[in-house]
Structures are given as structure tokens and as C-alpha cells.
Amino acid sequence: MAASSSFSLSQALLSHSLPTHCSTQQHSDRLCLSGFNLSSISGTKPNKSTLRQISRAANPRRRVASRSTVKAAAVETLEKTDIAVVEKSINTIRFLAIDAVEKANSGHPGLPMGCAPMGHILYDEVMRYNPKNPYWFNRDRFVLSAGHGCMLQYALLHLAGYDSVLEEDLKSFRQWGSRTPGHPENFETPGIEVTTGPLGQGIANAVGLALAEKHLAARYNKPDNEIVDHYTYVILGDGCQMEGISNEACSLAAHWGLGKLIAFYDDNHISIDGDTEIAFTENVDKRFEGLGWHVIWVKNGNTGYDEIRAAIKEAKAVKDKPTLIKVTTTIGFGSPNKANSYSVHGSALGAKEVDATRKNLGWPYEPFHVPEDVKKHWSRHGSEGAALEAEWNAKFAEYEKKYKEEAAELKSLISGELPVGWETALPTYTPESPADATRNLSQQCLNALAKVLPGLLGGSADLASSNMTLLKMFGDFQKDTPEERNVRFGVREHGMGAICNGIALHCPGLIPYCATFFVFTDYMRAAIRISALCEAGVIYVMTHDSIGLGEDGPTHQPIEHLASFRAMPNILMLRPADGNETAGAYKVAILNRKRPSILALSRQKLSQLSGSSIEGVEKGGYIISDNSSGNKPDVILIGTGSELEIAAKAGDELRNGGKTVRVVSFVSWELFDEQTDAYKESVLPAAVTARVSIEAGSTFGWEKLVGSKGKAIGIDHFGASAPAGKIYKEFGITVEAVVEAAKAIC
Amino acid sequence: MAASSSFSLSQALLSHSLPTHCSTQQHSDRLCLSGFNLSSISGTKPNKSTLRQISRAANPRRRVASRSTVKAAAVETLEKTDIAVVEKSINTIRFLAIDAVEKANSGHPGLPMGCAPMGHILYDEVMRYNPKNPYWFNRDRFVLSAGHGCMLQYALLHLAGYDSVLEEDLKSFRQWGSRTPGHPENFETPGIEVTTGPLGQGIANAVGLALAEKHLAARYNKPDNEIVDHYTYVILGDGCQMEGISNEACSLAAHWGLGKLIAFYDDNHISIDGDTEIAFTENVDKRFEGLGWHVIWVKNGNTGYDEIRAAIKEAKAVKDKPTLIKVTTTIGFGSPNKANSYSVHGSALGAKEVDATRKNLGWPYEPFHVPEDVKKHWSRHGSEGAALEAEWNAKFAEYEKKYKEEAAELKSLISGELPVGWETALPTYTPESPADATRNLSQQCLNALAKVLPGLLGGSADLASSNMTLLKMFGDFQKDTPEERNVRFGVREHGMGAICNGIALHCPGLIPYCATFFVFTDYMRAAIRISALCEAGVIYVMTHDSIGLGEDGPTHQPIEHLASFRAMPNILMLRPADGNETAGAYKVAILNRKRPSILALSRQKLSQLSGSSIEGVEKGGYIISDNSSGNKPDVILIGTGSELEIAAKAGDELRNGGKTVRVVSFVSWELFDEQTDAYKESVLPAAVTARVSIEAGSTFGWEKLVGSKGKAIGIDHFGASAPAGKIYKEFGITVEAVVEAAKAIC
Fold this sequence. Notes:
Strand order of the largest sheet of chain A: 10-11-9-12-13-15-14
Number of strands of chain A: 21
Cofactor (chains A, B): Co(2+); thiamine diphosphate; Mg(2+)
Strand content of chain A: 5-15%
Largest sheet of chain A: 7 strands, parallel
Largest interface: A-B, 115 and 115 residues
Number of helices of chain A: 29
Radius of gyration of chain A: 28 Å
Structural class of chain A: alpha/beta
Protein name (chains A, B): transketolase
Binding site for Mg(2+) (chains A, B): 238, 268, 270
Helix content of chain A: 40-55%
Site (Important for catalytic activity) (chains A, B): 108, 345
EC number (chains A, B): 2.2.1.1
Shape of chain A: elongated
Oligomer: homodimer
């Protein structure tokens, strides 16, 4: 696998450090992510003595030959840490947040001020990471689910020595082009794992990260070499707790026994509208115990550092359950007049209160100043992080020697490199192949791909047998069988989407898919949007994609959904029409690791069409049949998905009547938009204004393709409960309607 | 109020019995809903002796002079009920479900078979309703949150004597045009309170219904006359429990102390993918205790009728908490080979298994047969229901005599009739009025309307001070202050939307509004879609509607949201540009009681524009300025919301350069679509193809308005974190861009 690699670490880092979600940059060839320094593994043998030197520089008192020693050393360091430096460091975090928000005159100082102690302990004492390679594979993951408090994380990344958050970045907080946007964005700031801000997403992402770790550990760890081994930490607030998505994801986290997921609940009793008493009086501890979590309460999160440390220790000791550490804090701790009030949540303190807070906390420094002793204290993370990574690289080299095949596979997951020729596994079909529902054809693709793509895993929100998403050669990913690849999400669409975002962002080679009925994308739209924004190449397998589902009726029949996703940036909305197109849709989805894909698939059987192809799908829109010449048909019929067959039949009928007819499949608007003007003109010549489209969904947006002289056949009202054929007929989604519309304009 | 009423009960029933969500039928004048027989109240004095006769016919052994007597009688009846008839009735329910699903060869027999006992006890022994007036105001509400089991409810409505579900309706289950669609739909089937099927929605709707009852009871009940007094019952399944929305809504239900909400949790351990063990192993009881519910476990839901009865009695005795009755049942009870398996969940049993089930349960009857003794047993509900309503009408007459003002107000809430001249309360503005954010102007409207509309109540998902939704003259709706009208939803958008659907469907005069940032409609889209489908006129107050929110960045900046709602059927997407347009948007939203409205409002200040008007908004698109003649301007500039000001300024600049320019505000595409062709031509003449639109959102769909020769200025990628002005400039949402585009085409 390594032999076919053509990318270096520096390229990998470059690809990470640039925001790439703008449409012009979204190309499927940008797969060069790396979780570790490949050169140190695949090229020369790592030099153990060099490694030792690095680690000694980091901490001369300890050896780093084995992981467990490092862990012990970390605890040792922690115990010896001067309390004064800890307090100073915590106040540094607080004031970096205060100062940045003040300079921007925008932002959320309250959470960083309250959570600085747990933040400090995590990043300075507990977490294992390498600030100089934020993508080191085996790093502990940290997610700030309460993303509005991002200055906490920026301050921590700054102190820890990440190049992504320099002093100038703190000073340009929330400004145009900065690496410190208003909420944490993984695509802007190396060191940020996921994109948070919309509440509840982060804790669900963290569940996905922890799932990925447990899954990969189960698949690749050996009794003598636990090559995958990290924790996932998360801070969530009252807002995250109130959101339903967090309950969904946390129910699953306990069900799956994600013991290495440790969540800090910032219990500060304040949300934007005031005291949580006005809307949030449930017993969170009891709810989490009901969900199956281990729950610890740190009563003094403001200054009880040892309480926090002890809680983390206890959490790590509980291996079969995730742990919720409820940390009671004071929002805006240190601000004499605004602490413990909503006024410190989401706006700058104001010069006067900043002064008062400086006085109150005994902070004589200028804005953005990091005291020398704090700087010095944190400086060790550079060398320690390098040592941790080097140690792990050495461990990987050992692993590679002993477990060649597994190492190659794991490496491909870490790098995101796809096996050469993987796409040949995709099935192809001829017009003689039996008619089938695209949901079934999708299952054929999934099962074919799972054999060649070690990172493909996923499942459905309790509709596996309807969505046809089971991988037949694998069992269920469960607490005691985490090596398996069928994930059972239960009826939790929103949590499912966000968990898949976490899986996708764990390492580039993991390719999560998830499934439900297309209409229920409404339940998970916030997570899907974040897939698109944060460049998580999740594959959304959405079946029952129209009135074609029949009797379940309008609550289950999507109408506006295709249009609603075509309007969303950085996502591919694919609606294949038959077997070849379904295979093509999967090819596109697999290649697009930095944007999600939604596959809209039929419940009902569809014919295998003449002229359909994988290559066609890659162009978004293409001609499946044409009896005209000179790029000037009398009429162009455009269909998608289950209605392409209708367009094809109407084409035949019109041709029988003497017309020249082009039939175009429009499987993905986004892909077509990315083609050259010449190609577009070759498919939809400007001179041919007689165009009819047919799609069993909203006509909203179709004017772009059919023009003011064309006709869009679709459904601009809700569906109905009846057998599918009857609804198609009653709603006029028929061959006759296409023929009639075409005759009227050509 | 009654004097101004021009509608009768028969009209009211007619309006209910027709599906009205098709766009051609959605007119604001269709407000004629009635919750009680107005003629018996507002006209002649009710004749007590007649009432007594009706009630005696129903049950000669008891008097109905007071409500409590009826209740006691009901219990008495229940105690005397022959167990054999109960069992036969329960099996009737089971077989009506089996037979209907079998005939349709589609549907979900499992739940009705398992829940028939609790269904029977609720509809036959516990609930207070009048089958001949499904809209009687003081009826107990029942919600089948597990909507796929709708045959349970259809069977119950049929037995209870509702005209909406006759034998022929059961026989046309899931067929075109039937009143028994695949999931319960309030707009199709009188007797169905809300539209369910998408899981978790129903329990949240039920929370809204119970909130409405508690609120109205607090406002209108008197120590001597508790005129508002009913329970809300709901059946939810494992699927509902897994969905995050149910946790959100149930957390609020306990917070609000909704003691008259009684939820049956059908604990059958089976979901579509198999045993709930594969994805749902949390302790639901403990979670609900954590949420603050009273929890009861009925261990034998299959035959433990007295257990179920006792649980309901206990639930009613707990007045300060909602109650969850966990009823352990066997899905598909009675089917010898399919019970307790997923195979009975969602498909017909098949002829062989139907036979086996008939044998197993000793059911010798033909399909759809209701045995005579069962028929006779249920027949009393017609007269009893009439008596209940008549008794309540008498009570209302007493109430009206003593509390004239309150009675008039309550009557208007029950009928949905708006006070004459209410719209004059809306504020108006001149170009000289100070610039302001439309979110602030929205608050002025809300506060003005709350004074004249007794049914207006609502709130925000923890963003009241950002969404500007507080009604200043009212306090918070809370457990101990349920008469107040500011609802604090916490950070629970999805639950909020579905709760508002419940409030809206409780009685036509309640007008719920709810608020969050526009981008977070993604969290609640499933609830919004159901507002549209089920004709709930909820007002969605969605602020921070574009990149204009600035520093919070792309996670918070809507891009595709306007397009995504323009594509959704039966919803009004309104984006007002200034004070007059905001007032106009509220006028439209209040008048549209059968379709929801979304108001997209700015965070940033906007000028009051010359030419804007309430009347203009009502037409959806209208001219705000024009220096052309003969309906032939050189160019048409189209703007919405915050960008209308940009279009207006560009218009001025182009006019200074000698062009004739029309500036059009396009506040609602849906309303414009409903205008006459002549009006449309007067605003957007076909001959003028030089058109430029500007909107700080996706251009998807704008081709319809600007045509292939025009230009749509918008944003087709994600936003950015920076001050708003900077983002507008960098993204080219500027006067200069409009002027340049216009010059290029005219």
C-alpha cells in the first residue's frame, strides 16, 4: 500500500491547513490526509536512540520506551506541578479568552472562564498529543461540544504550542480570514477535531470518535501491541444537554460500552435566557445513569483541581461504560459583577469589567500576555508530543514487522489512501439485468465495496431491512463485538449523522455510511449540514425516496428534499436511476472524501436502462439516448432516479411519432455544474429550449434546466397514502404527461 | 364576539372533514373551526331537562348534572363491564387491524394487536369524548405517537361511533382517497388530533396539547366552574423513545408539571431491526424519573386489564407530574408464529397466519366483523358523548352568565375567530422611522398583537433576548404560573416545534409562535414539515437570517434555508425588509391559520424603506419604486429582506445614470405565486428580461424569477466568521455588484 503512495507528510499537512470547502476546491483527488509521518515508517527504520534522545529532552527523568511508562510519568509530572503555576496557567487561559473577546467585541467569555481549570488539566496534564503534528493518528481527541466557548480551546492550543494558534491568531479572533473563527472549525484550525457550535453535535461527534477508536482497536490491536489506544474527551454544557441529539448519542455510547469516552458536563446553571431553572430542571445525573453511563460529580469545578484529576482517574478505571463528569462551575468565574449571570455568556465583558476582573484575579498583565513561567511550563509539550509520536511510530514499526497485512491495512485507514483498483469491485449491469429497486442495487454495491474498502462501515436508524444496508459478511458492531462493521443506530437519525461525522473525522480512511428513509433527513439535517461544512465524506443512504414508497403516505413521502439538498453547499445529492447509476453514485461518493454524498434510492423496482453508465454519473448529467444529429434534437427530456425510465419511455414514444429526442439523466446537479461549458453545451445546447423534466418531487429549481419555455413535471404538494402506481397516475407523473408536455412545445 | 360570528357548526364540521392542505385551498378566510355547538350556547338557553333525557338514555342509572358524577358513573360502568365483552372487544380491535392490513396487504398489525387492551380501556372506559362532534372543545385528547399502528386508532374510532371511520373506511385502509391513510392524519380523519408517523412527534404534540389545556384552565377556570378540564393521553413505542425529540419534550413536560398528560409506553422489545437489545438497552424508567415524571410499570399489558386501569387511576392522582405508564406487551399478541418478532411489525400477517391467529384467539368471524354484543357495548358512546357535550354546554352557559368577558374570549379561542379589527394593532412605519433590525420590529409586532389576540403565546429555544420574542406584558408560562404567555423552551428546537404543533391543534384560536436562529430550523425541520402537512398555523420567528449575523460564522449562517423552505409545500416563507414588511408578514402569518409561516428576520439594523407596505407583503412580490412607464423598465431589481435596501440603493444609482429601474420586493414567493397572472405581469412583465436579484443566500431557484438572461446575486457556499459588513463586501453582496450586473444586461 505504501508503495503506491505519492504524498508526503508536508503535503498532508498543507491539505489540512487550508480551508477546502469552497466549491472550486472540492475535488475527489484531494485525499491526501495523513495521520502520521509516513516517511518515518515506510522508508527508513526508526532510530531508537534518536527517539530516546527526543524523549529525554522532553523530560529527562523518564523513559518513553513503553506507553504505560509515559502515562505514569504524566501522572508523576502532574503531582509535582507547582500549584501556583497551575493557577497562573488557568488564569492565562481565562484572560486570553477575555482579551480576545474584548478585542473582537464579540464572542463568549463565560465558558472559558468557568472551564479553564478542566481545560488546563486536560491539555496540560492528561491528554496525549503532538502539537507539531495535529494529525498524529494515536492522539487523544478533544471535542468542545459547547463550541461557543471556542476561546477556551484556542487558548489551550496556543499554550500547547500548536502553530495554528499563534498570538496573532488570538488577536484576530472572529476576523475575516483568521484561523480563530467564532466557533471551532476543523477545516480552519489544525488541532480542532470537529466543527461545533450548533449544540449537541459535538458530544455526538465524540461518540463517533470513540466508536472509531474502539472499532479500530478491536480490529488491529494485538496482545503484544495495542497500536490503537486513545481517549476521547469532550466538554458539553447545559445547552448540549437539552438538545435531543445528545440523548440519542449518549444512549448509544453506553449501549456500545465506549469506556474511553469521558465527557465533562459544564454544570454552570446558566444559559442564554438566564438561570437554567426556567427551562431545565431535570436530574441529569439520574438520566445518564438511566442511559447506562458512569457518573461522577465534581462539586467544585472552579478551584477543585484535585477533584477534577481524581474524577478523570476514576473515569479511566471504568472501562465498560462512558463516564460523565458533572463539573459544577461558575460561568465567567473571576468577573466580580458578571460571573454567574447570562450577561457573561455571549458578549464582551467591557473595558470596565475586564479591569475589575484583572484586579479580582490579581492579573497585572497586558492583554494577550502569557507570563514567562506559564510559557515555560507549557513548553515541554513540543518535545513531549514529538516523543509520544516517535514512540508510537517505533511501536508501529514493530507492529509492521510482525503483522504486515494488518499494518498495511491500518496504514491505508490512517492515510485515507484507497486500494488501487477498488472501483473495479463495483457491479455493472446490462439492460437485460433484472429490474430491481435501487435500494437493493445499493446493497449490492455496499457489499461489493466492503470487501475491498477496509474502512467502510455503517448502518441504519432501525431500518436496515428496508434501507438494505447490511453488510452480509460482517456481524454487528456491539459492545462485545466492536470489530464488526454493521452499526445499529436505533431510531436516532440525528445522532446517527453526527456520530458518522465523528467516525469520518477520526481518520481519513474510515468511510461511514448511514441510512434511513429519505424523508427523515429532516430529523438529521443539522448533522448533514455539518458533514458538508466540516468536510466529512459521510455517505447518506436514503431509500424510499419519493411517492414511490406508496401506502405509508405523506408523512413518509419526500417532496422538497431533493431541492433542499441541491441548495446546500458542499454536498452531493445523487439520485441514480438503475444499477449502473447506483454503482456510479457509490464511485463518486467513495472518491469524495471531503464532501458528503446523499444517495436517494427507490423502494420500488426499476428497469435497467440502456445507456446508463458509471462514467455518466461522474459527470452529473449525461445523454442516455438520442436520435438527433448536430446537437439539435427537437426536444430534450430530462429525468432523475425512478423517473428516468419514464423519460426514456416517453422518448421512445415521441420518436415513434417522428420526433428527434434526447433523453438526459440528471443524477447530480452539483457534478454537472462542475463540468466544462463545452460539455454542458453538448448535453443541454442553449439553442434547444424545448425541454421537459420529470421528477417525483418539487419542481423548485428546475427552471434552471428547462428554462422559461420548457416544462418541469413534478409534485408541488404533499403526497398521499395509496399504492405507488396509483399515486403516480393521480399526480400525473406518467409517460403520457411527458409526451403531452413535449408535444406542446416542440 | 358571538355577535360577529357568521359561521355555524355544520360549516365548521364541513371545513374539518375536507383535506385542505392543497395550495389552492389555503386561504386565510378558512378560519371556521368550532370546538362546540355554538348555537346551543350563544342562542337559546340550554334546556336542562332535555340534557337529562339524553344522559338517561345513555345510562339510565346515573345523573349527569355535574362532571364529577359522570366520572364516577364511568368508573361504575367500568366495574360492571362483563369481562367477556371486554376481551371480545379487544379481539375485535385486533382483528379489525389484522383484516385491514391484510386487505391492503400493507400496514402494521403488530402494535394494534399488542396495544388493543390499553386502547380498549382508554376509549371505552376512560376517555371523555363525543363521537358525533370530534371537535367538542373539552374532549380528552388522544395521540398515537407510534403512528404506524394507526389501525388501532381507526378500529377504536370505528367502535366508538365516529362517522369518519365506517366499515367501508376500514376496508379502504391505505387506499387512494380513503379516510384511513397509512399514518394518522388529522386533516383526513376527524377524531385524529394530530398527524403522526415520524417517530417522537406525537409525544411532543401531546405535550403541546397538555400545555394548552393547563394554560387555558389557568386563564379561564373559576373556583365554581372549571370550564377547561381534560386529559391528554398518548401511546408511544420504543421508536419514539429513542428519538431525541421525545426526550426534549418530556423534559419540558415534567418541568411544566403537566399532571394531566398520561403517556403509555408500549414496551414490546421489538423494533424494525429486531429485538431492542441490539440498539436500545437504556433504563427508560430511570431516565423518565430523572426527567421528573411519575413512572408506573404495568407488567402484563396483554391481559392485565385491571393493572392498566389501576395505573390510570394512579396517574390521575398524581397532579403535579406527567405520568409514564410503561406497559409491557407482546407485539402481534395472538399470532402464534409471528408474535414477539419484527415480522409482525410492518407487514400483513399473510392468509395462513391470519387463520392461525383466528384459531388461536377463538375468533370465528368473517373479516371486518364486529360481533353484536361488542357493537351493543360500544353503542352507548354516542348518547354518552352527546350528554357529556350537552352537560359541558350547559356549564358553559352558566359560565357565560357569570363571566361574560372571559366567556367571550374563551369562545373566540375555541372558534378561532379573530377579533374584529385586530390588524389595526400592527405598527406602521415611514421612511423617517429609525433604522432597526427586523428582529426588533418583530418584537414590536408580537407585543402589539398579544394585546389584541388572546390566543397568541410562545417563546424561544433559549434565545429570547436574541430572537426578541418576549411579550413584555406577560410573565413566563411555568409550572406555577401557567396562565402566562412567554414559553421558555430551553435549547430544544425540535421539541419546541412539535409542541407548538400540539398547541395550534388544541383549538383554532391558539396561535403559537416559536423562535431560534434561522439556521437552526435544521434542528426542527421534521416538526416544521408536519406543521405544513397537518395545517398547524404555527409562526416560526427565525432571526439572524443570513451572513448578516457576522462573527458567529458559518455554523450559524443560513445559506440554503430560504430555498429549502420555498420548496416545501403548504408553508409561507416570509423575509420582510423593514418595519412595514415585518408588520405585513405578521398580518399574513396570523391570517393563515391552516399553514405555518416562517419569518426570516435580521440581526442587523435595516433602513425603513420608501414604498414598503403591509398590502405589498400580502401579494408576496410588489413594486417599491419605479421610474419607468408603460410597464417597461430597462431593468428590474429584485431583493428580499436585508438585501432589499441594497437593491433600492442600486436602483437609485442606476437611475442617476439615466436608466429606468423598477425595484421589486419579493418577500414571499408562495404568496406571489397565488396572485393573478395579470398582477404577476404587472410586477414582472415577461418582456423585461433584464433582471437582477440579490439575496444573501443560495441562488438556487432564482432562475425562475430572473430568467436565463438575468443574474441572481447570492451566496452558493458556506459563510465565514467576521464582522457582517466585511462578509457582505467579500462575498459581493453589494450595491456595486447589483449596479454592475444590471449594466451588463441593460
